[in-house]
Amino acid sequence: MDDLGNLAERLARNSYLVDEAQPHIQVDQEAVRRTGAGPLLVRICPAHVYSQGVDGRIEVAWAGCLECGTCLAVAPEGTLTWHYPRGGFGVGYRYG
Amino acid sequence: MEDDVFDVIVVGGGVAGCVTAYQLARAGRSVALLERAATPGSKNLSGGVFYCRVMDQVFPGFVEEAPVERRITRNCVSLLNESSGVTVDYWDARLAEPVNAVSVLRGRLDAWLAEQCEAVGVAVLPGVRVDALLRDADQVVGVRADEEELRGRVVILADGVNSFLAREAGLRAKEPPKHLAVGIKSVIGLPAQRLEERFGLAQGEGVAYAVVGDCTQGVAGGGFLYTNADSVSVGVVLRLDDLAASGRTASDIHDHFLDHPAISRQLAGGTPLEYGCHLTIEAGPQAVRQDLTAPGLLVVGDAAGFTLNTGFTIRGMDLAAASGMAAARAANAALDAGDLSQRSMDRYRAELAATFAGRDMRTYAHAPAFFENRLLYRDVGLLAADVMHGVYSLDTSPRSHLRDVARHAVAGSHVGWRRLAGLVFAAVRSL
Ligand SMILES: Cc1cc2nc3c(=O)[nH]c(=O)nc-3n(C[C@H](O)[C@H](O)[C@H](O)COP(=O)(O)OP(=O)(O)OC[C@H]3O[C@@H](n4cnc5c(N)ncnc54)[C@H](O)[C@@H]3O)c2cc1C
Ligand code: SF4
User: Is the pTM here over 0.90, yes or no?
Assistant: First the structure.
């Protein structure tokens, strides 16, 4: 399949109701630095929510999250605060 | 309902939650079904083959009435290598009558299930994320969502694989990555007629491929491809411990599978419709041994660990339905008796043990350990292709009997006779 589109294009086909008031993912930058978990988060998230800046900080594009829970399952204790978005917010699959 | 107390509050409107709520409402109970999605089904994702015989016990005529995609009458198991593959292709008219399995898209199916619930009087409340359980000493007496409290005599957790609520209740520990896998799936649109021609299907019938090997680039897990009415569900399932250790990027493995010549050919000319991901349980038999009950509380479906990967089939939806039916019977009996103690709720265990869901979890107790064997994700497929190559490659050298072809292939592979025999022995015992 050669025309799947990049991740941004793929995510754009889902419907999202973004909860601007309450991000549902928070990263403890210090804990990530200490545990070296940054690269793991970056590559394990199927939606490319995490990226690492030149300064080593992890950026979180939480609006594109598909709410699977993978990052939380593999992240070292204390690096992530992650919960489902508030009721009604977040990703909406049309097919599933 | 007296004093605004529901008989039962069900948290989560997937297959498990909807079946549970439906059965209890049919039994005359007042039931609230709380779902965090704005539209039931829109948070849910499955590979998509529903072994649906059990649904006839809840919704007679399920296959005709529900929004199902295709009746699966052809099942293929593929060992896939980079440039070869060996497939067992099994079709059988007996799988059509009665219908054994259908492909489904959960956005459609779960919305229909929630409608059925509403029709029998369930108070379906979408857009509500339950944040915590309400307790009176040990007894669970309701739920809290935002600042709202809702009271129920029995609370049933059907909140899926992550079940933060079951964890909070102390029923389940956080699963280790080894017990979980992430499924990454694309839905690719293909007109029905084209799809039927391409896959050699009669109208309305469908095929399910289970793939192991190069589809996951050696990471424990597998690939799948299922035909829907006018689309294909295709993707990979990757065990989290192995994915983390592999150093690979999850989305790249998905893309690699869809780009594999064996797969991309099947998708050619298709329109990408959706990209999504969801966790699934790899160690269901272990997970369901944890507590599934507390005073006033029952746990069903994925939240309780009801998923089975047997290599040939991934099953979760049928087990979700069966566990929901067992929980509904147990809750109903407890409410009848006016006894919501631990002892009374434990009746659910007995109800489960009497169903195929409870029994299959025991039968496949050793399946997760079998899938830890690394040979499956590379060497077995290469070996199978070498044997087939020995059979079909007529290179003008004199032929050997199959026995010698196999012997030669095993000798030339990493696997070796002992490990191969061990693998076959483990397979026939655990799968
Ligand atoms: C990639 C993949 C492929 C699969 N393939 C198959 C297959 O081919 N066949 C098969 O039978 N099974 C398959 N499964 C497994 C199957 O999808 C699950 O076992 C099944 O969906 C479980 O149903 P459930 O109702 O228990 O949970 P879910 O379907 O996950 O439903 C849980 C519901 O609870 C809601 N919820 C969660 N938390 C809250 C909260 N706090 N408050 C309110 N609502 C909440 C969610 O939004 C969701 O609607 C697959 C799974 C994956 C990931
Ligand atoms: S929950 Fe899934 S999609 Fe969301 S950030 Fe974590 S890994 Fe990515």
Answer: yes
